[in-house]
Write a structure and sequence with these properties.
The chain is built from twelve helices and 18 strands. By secondary structure, the protein is an alpha/beta fold. The protein has a domain of 172 residues: 3-Layer(aba) Sandwich (Carbamate kinase). The strands form four sheets. Strands 3-6-2-1-9-11-12-10 form an eight-stranded mixed β-sheet, sandwiched between helices. A six-stranded antiparallel β-sheet has the order 14-15-13-16-18-17. Strands 4-5 form a two-stranded antiparallel sheet. The radius of gyration is 23 Å and the shape is globular. The site of magnesium ion has 3 residues, from loops. Catalyzes the phosphorylation of the beta-carboxyl group of aspartic acid with ATP to yield 4-phospho-L-aspartate, which is involved in the branched biosynthetic pathway leading to the biosynthesis of amino acids threonine, isoleucine and methionine. Pfam families: AA_kinase, ACT_9.
Length: 405
């Protein structure tokens, strides 16, 4: 007898009819003789609706109260799914994050799981129960409810699969697997049969919202067998594993993209040994996440520095820099909004020179100016204007022959 973790996302549990469909899917897995742990998201867009309600009351609600509010979404689904399974004569029991022993660091809104106390779940499983766990939520050592960041139910599922040493973790969603790029925007996108943990980690971090990046991190660290598949169509999905075994001949496996990027430029920075560390320490102390960084020196002996951040943080970043101007020692600040980041990802890049060159060539021939560049062994990212984002994605998808032929 095996243990399978199944996770169903918002759209897959978006109505009573869909919840009944999920119950049938869970039942099928138990009929194969497996123990099953099910992780669910809030129904449909209900997390967004809760965020909307909070915004109607306050423009800056307390992060603690936001977690209290948002964690209710998943609690609705666990109870309904458990009822649906009970109705079919199956023995199911629902658990909130804290009941399931999911302990997190004390950070509201984007907490990491630090530990899972599995005793309660183990004992239910050994009594033959189907356990339904609320995704996206946990509890701190001090008993405070936390959430894991948007899309975090994937992470609950994979972390539970790792802690319970499950044989497999299936992520059921509204697409049939991981595609070469977001199929909602590019109709030529093609489903990949397998992707390596490293490629998936880059894709997820670079904006491919199909999996929460920390879920991939857990899967890689604990070697969890992960499959992304459809909750509507019974077909094989995409397997995420150590080494992608299929389609190795493709150097680039996917194109990821993300909008709402802002580029901040600091001009005339005193070019001392510590100036960069002072700037980035100050930003980090204010919880501002910096992505790409470019520095150049001027003839006058000063430095110009540009970095990219999420647009949500730009006003705060500017005020932090302005408030610390005397310590940081620069002449002027500048910011450019409405930018996007487009990235190509593939482990074949390590051994194939010229991939970045080809990317730049494709963008140039489409008249798309590049504002910033960043590379790693298996990805190249460019920051461009948001209005050019989808054009760039389509052109790169085509040039690297990723689409359906
Ligand atoms: P769920 O609610 O099931 O967690 P999400 O909306 O979080 O679903 O993730 C699924 C969505 O991810 C798809 O509808 C698709 O638009 C988007 N997506 C982005 N990039 C990709 C990709 N490379 N492959 C598949 N889906 C992608
Ligand atoms: N309900 C949460 C969200 O919408 C978590 C999730 O769906 O994974 O972000
Ligand atoms: Mg999701």
């Amino acid at each position: 007898m095996g243990l399978i973790v199944q996770k169903f996302g918002g759209t897959s549990v978006g109505s009573v009819e869909r919840i009944l469909n999920v119950a049938a899917c869970v039942k099928e897995e138990t009929e194969k003789g497996n123990n099953v742990v099910v992780v669910v998201s809030a129904m449909g867009k209900s997390t967004d609706q809760l965020v909307g309600l909070a915004k109607e009351i306050s423009s800056q609600p307390s992060k603690r109260e936001m977690d209290m509010l948002l964690s209710t979404g998943e609690q609705v689904t666990i109870a309904l799914l458990s009822m649906a399974l009970n109705q079919q004569g199956l023995d199911a029991v629902s658990y909130t994050g804290w009941q399931a022993g999911i302990v997190t660091e004390p950070i509201h809104g984007n907490a990491r799981i630090t530990k899972i106390n599995t005793e309660a779940l183990q004992s239910q499983l050994s009594n033959g129960k189907i356990v339904i766990v609320a995704g996206f939520q946990g509890i701190t050592e001090d008993g405070e409810i936390t959430t894991l960041g948007r899309g975090g139910s994937d992470t609950t599922a994979v972390a539970l699969a790792a802690a319970l040493k499950a044989d497999k973790c299936d992520i059921y969603t509204d697409v049939t697997g991981v595609f070469t790029t977001d199929p909602r925007y590019v109709k030529e996108a093609r489903k990949l049969l397998s992707v390596s943990y490293d490629e998936m980690l880059e894709l997820a971090n670079l904006g491919a919202g199909v999996l929460h990046p920390r879920a991939v991190e857990f899967a890689k660290n604990y070697q969890v067998r992960l499959e992304v598949r459809s909750s509507m169509e019974k077909i094989a999905g995409t397997v995420i594993e150590g080494e992608a075994t299929m389609e190795q001949n493709l150097v680039v496996r996917g194109v990821a993209f993300e909008d709402e990027i802002t580029k901040v430029t600091v001009l005339g920075l005193t070019n001392s040994l510590t100036s960069l560390s002072t700037i980035f320490t100050t930003l980090a102390q204010n919880q501002i996440n910096v992505d790409i960084i470019i520095q150049s020196t001027t003839e006058a002996g000063t430095a110009n520095l540009s970095f990219s951040i999420h647009t949500d943080n730009w006003l705060e970043a500017l005020s932090v820099l302005e408030n610390n101007k005397p310590v940081l020692g620069y002449e002027q600040l500048d910011a450019e909004n409405k930018l996007a980041k487009v990235s190509i990802v593939g482990s074949g890049m390590i051994s194939n020179p010229g991939v970045a060159a080809k990317m730049f060539e494709v963008l140039a021939s489409n008249n798309i100016p590049i504002k910033m560049v960043s590379t790693s062994e298996i990805k190249v990212s460019v920051v461009i204007e948001e209005k050019n984002m989808l054009k760039a994605v389509e052109a790169l998808h085509k040039a690297f022959e990723l689409g359906d032929n």
